[in-house]
Amino acid sequence: xxxxxxxxxxxxxxxxxxxxxxxxxxxxxxxxxxxxxxxxxxxxxxxxxxxxxxxxxxxxxxxxxxxxxxxxxxxxxxxxxxxxxxxxxxxxxxxxxxxxxxxxxxxxxxxxxxxxxxxxxxxxxxxxxxxxxxxxxxxxxxxxxxxxxxxxxxxxxxxxxxxxxxxxxxxxxxxxxxxxxxxxxxxxxxxxxxxxxxxxxxxxxxxxxxxxxxxxxxxxxxxxxxxxxxxxxxxxxxxxxxxxxxxxxxxxxxxxxxxxxxxxxxxxxxxxxxxxxxxxxxxxxxxxxxxxxxxxxxxxxxxxxxxxx
Length: 309
Prior knowledge:
Blueprint: H1 10-34, H2 39-60, H3 69-93, H4 99-106, H5 109-120, H6 128-145, H7 155-176, H8 185-208, H9 218-251, H10 254-270, H11 276-293, H12 295-308
Helix pairs in contact: 1-4, 1-9, 1-10, 2-3, 2-8, 2-9, 3-7, 3-8, 4-10, 5-6, 5-7, 6-11
């Protein structure tokens, strides 16, 4: 039997909105930084700074957990699925895509999580409403890509596919992450970011040779710092605080809110404009997510029942 939904107080709603704004801001800061800094170097900077912050946080507030070698191997796999692969693909894609459009596509993550869980686990199966949500969500992506795909694998199509790849990797991470159910969540966050830094350091040094790159602007450097400290390290702390209070089902609502803040920031500060097909595609994805979540439909049925009775 699924766990009952926890009550969402105004305080929790406020924290959820704050988390959505912060994660929406990550697309905004990436868009600024990636125009001056190569994607792999940017990935390294993000995970390195965030790992330092979380390590210092857990030194000040230790969990007392004993770290076994096998656990660090699991952290490394999680870091690959949840940091290295998706960050690399997302940053590559955002060289071409604005913050708003990238965040819209990123909203596919729960859909991939559901599909992967259906195949890889026995306790999360696709119902008719969830299958409908998956189909509608993918239709939304198809609408956003539009006829560009028929022009061949040009820059914009490759960028869109890269961000879709980001969501697939996040989907695998969400399913694999179940093995950490007995691990303090911040230990998991610290572990994956630390191992990601160890992996990314030689990759970025070898391929990007960052010491040969021109010095980024002050705005780009500030974006990196905010991306790593606020949108990664602090966001993890806030996420797990909400998770403990509201539960996993309620916190999934953040997926519906992130594109709103990313689109707003992109339009106000970067002058981004979404095409009509992007708005329609967003609508399809949100309808798909609502169908998967199930609560909006339950709410409408409940209201309709009371009106009829």
